[in-house]
Design brief:
heterodimer, A: 24 helices, B: mainly alpha, 22 helices, 2 strands
Chain lengths: 538, 520
């Protein structure tokens, strides 16, 4: 059991802090609630320190298996990534006003304890997804991640749109979970295994025996993929993105754009390891499926983003497109045509892009939160009209937005450029030339709407600012130091990891290290017999 | 001396940061001008410190690397790059100097973006790593987008967006090709990449070369991809047009010279590609000239003339012989000088009369003899009058086309027609605007013309000071082009040698007498 403890220290810290926060939330005293955010930050930071220490202390990266958990370098990387971006996300959601304990973009009223508890639980769910080693734990981790997000959307601000978004997000989420569970049941039914290592052995056994995956297993894998697509906001289940991202308060939107998406990709990579083994020897149908998924996701995301008039909706659909880019890396996981193995390139590319996307996206949402709405609402800017000319007025914020948007386009000297590079590399190495070309065309298309954001902020003059708007703004603009700090961290990260070679090298090494993933059972040989294979048709 | 290259990169960047931080517009002006003057000084120091006998890149310095990708941020210049660096430094200094009077709003931002642009342009010419080259190549878009979009004419927002999107869309294909080659070679070093490309099978190589070519052809721009150019040039503020025409277009030709020429044009299997590029060039020349002829807006006329001129420039590269390539490199420099100068003069006219309409301006020589002198000088330079700088480069590119294996007589003949057409529209415009009866529009006085320092009727001393260096360059290069041609003879011969090695044909002996004849 010490083993289990040592594996799950960060998760335990987060869950423990969440429990304390639930109690704090019940307190009638404002002061008690005032410490909530600090407690959450402390939990995240200490978990981060532990994870970073674990990453560096494991000189020979050991795989640790305990019960249903497996901590390999992949899990370590995701853990550090999730916690580090989680800190920035928490800064964006920092309460700055004592009277209402929410910043201008986020108004959860008295539910402060609950909000941060949900926040921590969701991140703990993400970390658990990365270390899950059987179907049950994976499912529970995904639910631990998802259910708090539904609540966070609904309590994030007291307007109808947020409630509608929460309901929509919840019902579609439940649908996707159901689809995923159906897939899980097929996988379990056809292999008779719960643990990944053993399930993998069965699946690969049948692959080697017949040269293809049996029909029901394939069906299960596809269903699970579609279920994960919801978390990633990828093609068949992407359409909720616009409404949900718009309805949720901006800090929660930033959260949704990173945490569930990362979890989706982590789970997807795990699933593919299970199906294909450590070398991703996957059936060609899955390759084709992922190829189509990637191409459709990025194209549809970009086209929908072009049509929006609300910046948050633009960012929502662009986040769909970014999932598509990462799916290109996933599709490149397959060894192809006797070429040099693109697998390490592909995995490290996806992991790098996850980090890059997390960093730059936080910056964009953070700037959006700091810019005031035009019509005197006690709220943050969301539409292009509200952004008009703001770059002139707030030069620092404008430049921050410009840097992050350029990074999302993939302009050099930003982390987004390196990310695109790291995704195009495996695609070309794996022979997916057309997919790479679709990716670069999509990058060019995405430049249109990101440039529109920058253009509106810097090139348009401000619309008529009515006096009421100005005075309202002056009244509400308290220094939102924490949010500003979050934006500064994101912008610095975007430039640092993109333009300073040593820093970029650290992140690429990290991603390469994180690409060491395995699902072989190091302790006991898989207990499978030929009899289990017969359980093919349920 | 290597630190000088670093200074070229970081002095403007630091200046830009200072401009963003200070509150005072005047101080930003000083920083902008100061940084660009320092860079020009550094460029001069490099010109003197350069070992002209050595064909290899010099002053190499590394900024660090990203191991897993195979990227190393290495800077160095050979003689071709060095001349372009010098051109950039000169033009940017003059462009900034020319904006001191015209740019009145958002001054700090303006000089900040100008300095970022300067740094990026230096980076393109100094990079010895393909990814670094690409990084700076793309980075030039951002400041230019803002310069056009904020300080440009009435259509500025549309022009800025079109400029960015056109160029970016082209260059993403270049990125894909670069990454492909980098994967094959394991590194992104320019020489390694080019060597690796040569050993690719022709079926693959053609796609890689096309990928490179698309990005560069939009930037140059070659004929069907040029539509962003007249708009961007016309809408940009004066300094923006100067830099756009003078330097940014050269990024495309420089890219073709560095990558497409040694990888693609030289390959005997890709002869068709050379022919296609040649056809696009001559179409661009004729089309650009005809379009320029009918323009009513002087700035638009000069913009279309750039389309025609860059046709010559790329045609020289497509000729793949010593005359053509040398002529083309000289063309890059000359076009930068004379077209940059013309945009400056147009800007000076515009500041006085607030119009660039040929129909509303006439006989300016009567009122502004000094301006007329410079205008005619640069027009003649652009037309290619022997004795001025335009002539040797135009002559050599056409000669190269005539002598080329792939192009030959027809291309040369059409290019010669293009040269004549160039004379027609330039002189047509000069005749109407400079000579004839004096006609100027009533200057509207409602805006900022009544403030503390109104412009004199003719050019001020400051404006003359801006134009004199360019006029000197026009004359000096025109009188002794051979000296300049010789400086980049060795690197070009390296390319030519590669040409013949790759095409496995008899070595074409460089035609020394032609060069020698041009020296006088």
């Amino acid at each position: 059991m010490t083993d289990l403890l040592s594996i799950t220290i960060p998760e335990l810290i987060l869950v423990g802090a969440a429990c304390v926060l639930f109690f704090l939330g019940c307190s009638r005293r404002t002061a008690a609630r005032g410490v909530a955010a600090w407690l959450a930050l402390g939990a995240l930071l200490s978990a981060l320190v532990v994870s970073v220490y674990a990453l560096f202390s494991a000189v020979a990266p050991v795989e640790m298996v305990s019960g249903s958990l497996r901590l390999d370098n992949f899990g370590r990387y995701i853990r550090v990534l999730g916690l580090a971006v989680g800190v920035i996300l928490l800064l964006l959601a920092w309460p700055t006003r004592a009277d209402r304990t929410g910043n201008s973009a986020l108004r959860f009223g008295g539910d402060v304890g609950e909000f941060y508890a949900m926040f921590l639980l969701s991140i703990a769910g993400l970390l658990l997804v990365a270390v899950a080693d059987d179907l049950i734990v994976l499912f529970m981790a995904l639910e631990l991640l998802s259910i708090p997000t539904y609540i966070m959307v609904s309590i994030s601000r007291p307007i109808a749109a947020a409630q509608e978004a929460a309901v929509k997000y919840f019902f579609l989420g439940a649908l996707s979970i159901a689809v995923m569970l159906l897939g899980f049941s097929y996988l379990y039914g056809s292999t008779g295994q719960i643990r990944f290592a053993e399930m993998s052995a069965v699946l690969r056994g049948s692959m080697e025996a017949t040269g293809a995956l049996p029909r029901w297993q394939m069906f299960g894998v596809i269903l699970v993929l579609i279920g994960f697509a919801y978390k990633m906001a990828a093609f068949p289940l992407h359409f909720y993105a616009g409404d949900v991202y718009e309805g949720a308060a901006t800090p929660v939107t930033a959260f949704l754009a990173f945490v569930p998406k990362t979890a989706g990709f982590v789970a997807l990579i795990r699933l593919l390891t299970v199906v294909g083994g450590d070398h991703f020897k996957l059936p060609p149908q899955i390759l084709t499926f992922l190829w189509v998924l990637a191409a459709l996701t990025m194209t549809i995301g970009n086209v929908l983003a072009l049509l929006q008039n609300n910046v948050k909706r633009v960012l929502a659909y662009s986040s769909v497109a970014h999932s598509g880019y990462m799916l290109v890396g996933i599709a490149a996981l397959f060894p192809h045509l006797q070429r040099p193995d693109p697998r390490p390139l592909a995995l490290s590319g996806v992991l790098f892009y996850l980090a890059a996307y997390g960093i730059m996206n936080c910056g964009v949402f953070g700037v959006l939160m700091l810019l005031p709405a035009r019509d005197g609402r006690d709220d943050s800017a969301e539409t292009f009209e509200e952004l008009a000319g703001q770059g002139r007025r707030h030069l620092g914020l404008g430049l921050g937005m410009a840097v992050c948007c350029l990074s999302l386009i993939g302009i050099p000297l930003t982390v987004g450029f390196l990310g695109k590079l790291m995704l195009i590399r495996p695609a070309l190495a794996g022979g997916l030339t057309w997919l790479a070309i679709i990716l670069v065309i999509n990058a060019a298309v995405s430049a249109t709407y990101y440039l529109h954001i920058i253009g509106v902020m810097f090139l348009r003059s401000e619309g008529a600012v009515d006096e009421q708007g100005l005075s309202g703004e002056a009244a509400m603009r308290r220094p939102q130091f924490a949010v500003g700090l979050g934006v500064v961290l994101s912008v610095i990260g975007t430039l640092l990891f993109g333009a300073v070679p040593p820093a970029a090298q650290i992140l690429t090494y990290g991603a390469e290290l994180g690409a060491e993933i395995s699902c072989a059972q190091p302790i006991a040989p898989p207990a499978t017999g030929p009899g289990r294979l017969a359980a093919d048709s349920p | 001396m290597a630190y000088l290259l670093l200074m070229l990169l970081f002095v403007p960047a630091a200046g830009a940061v200072v401009c963003a931080l200070v509150k005072d517009g005047r101080f930003a002006k000083g920083v902008g001008l100061g940084a660009s003057v320092i860079c020009a000084g550094i460029a001069v120091a490099l010109l003197f410190g350069f070992d002209w006998k050595d064909a290899n890149p010099q002053f190499g310095v590394s900024l660090g690397q990203i191991g897993p990708i195979g990227f190393e941020a290495r800077l160095a210049v050979d003689s071709i790059s060095l001349w372009l660096v010098a051109l950039t430094a000169l033009l940017q200094m003059l462009a900034i100097a020319s904006s001191l009077h015209g740019i009145r709003e958002r001054v700090r931002e303006y000089y900040g973006w100008m300095l970022v642009l300067l740094s990026a342009m230096f980076g393109v010419f100094m990079a010895r790593d393909t990814l670094l080259f690409y990084a700076f190549f793309e980075l030039t878009l951002v400041p230019m987008f803002f310069i056009i979009g904020i300080w440009g004419g009435p259509e500025r927002r549309y022009a800025a967006g079109k400029f960015f999107l056109f160029t970016f869309s082209g260059s993403v294909f270049t990125l894909a090709a670069i990454i492909y080659l980098g994967l094959q070679a394991g590194r992104f070093d320019i020489d390694v990449i080019v060597e690796r490309a040569k050993s690719l099978p022709a079926g693959t190589l053609i796609w890689v070369v096309l990928g490179f070519l698309v990005g560069f052809a939009v930037k140059v721009p070659l004929f069907p991809l040029h539509t962003w150019l007249p708009l961007a040039h016309t809408e940009a503020p004066t300094a923006g047009s100067v830099i756009l025409a003078g330097v940014l277009l050269k990024l495309g030709t420089y890219g073709i010279l560095r990558f497409v020429l040694p990888m693609g044009f030289v390959n005997a299997d890709l002869g068709v590609l050379v022919k296609v590029v040649g056809v696009l060039c001559v179409i661009g020349m004729i089309y650009g000239s005809l379009a320029a002829w009918v323009q009513q807006d002087i700035k638009k006329l000069v913009a279309y003339s750039s389309v025609a001129h860059l046709g010559f420039c790329v045609l020289g590269l497509a000729a793949i012989n010593l005359e053509g390539v040398q002529g083309s490199i000289l063309y890059m420099i000359n076009h930068g000088i004379s077209t940059g100068a013309m945009f400056l003069v147009v800007g000076m006219i515009y500041e006085r009369y607030h119009t660039r309409d040929i129909n509303r301006l006439s006989g300016l020589a009567r009122r502004m003899p000094v301006l007329a002198f410079f205008w005619i000088l640069f027009t003649l330079s652009s037309v290619g009058l022997p004795g001025l700088n335009g002539f040797p480069s135009e002559f050599l590119t056409i000669l190269g086309a005539f002598k080329s294996k792939h192009l030959g007589f027809v291309y040369g003949a059409v290019a010669a027609v293009g040269m004549v057409l160039g004379a027609v529209y330039m002189l047509h415009m000069a005749a109407r605007v400079i000579w004839g009866p004096l006609k100027t529009p009533e200057v509207e006085t409602e805006d900022h013309d009544q403030e503390e320092n109104p412009l004199p009727r003719d050019l001020s001393g400051w404006e003359i000071g801006i134009l004199v260096p360019l006029a000197l360059a026009v004359v000096v290069i025109g009188v002794i082009p051979g000296k300049m041609l010789n400086t980049f003879r060795e690197p070009v011969i390296q390319l030519i040698g590669n040409v013949n090695a790759a095409a496995s044909q008899q070595t074409v002996v460089p035609d020394a007498p032609v060069i020698a004849a041009k020296e006088r």
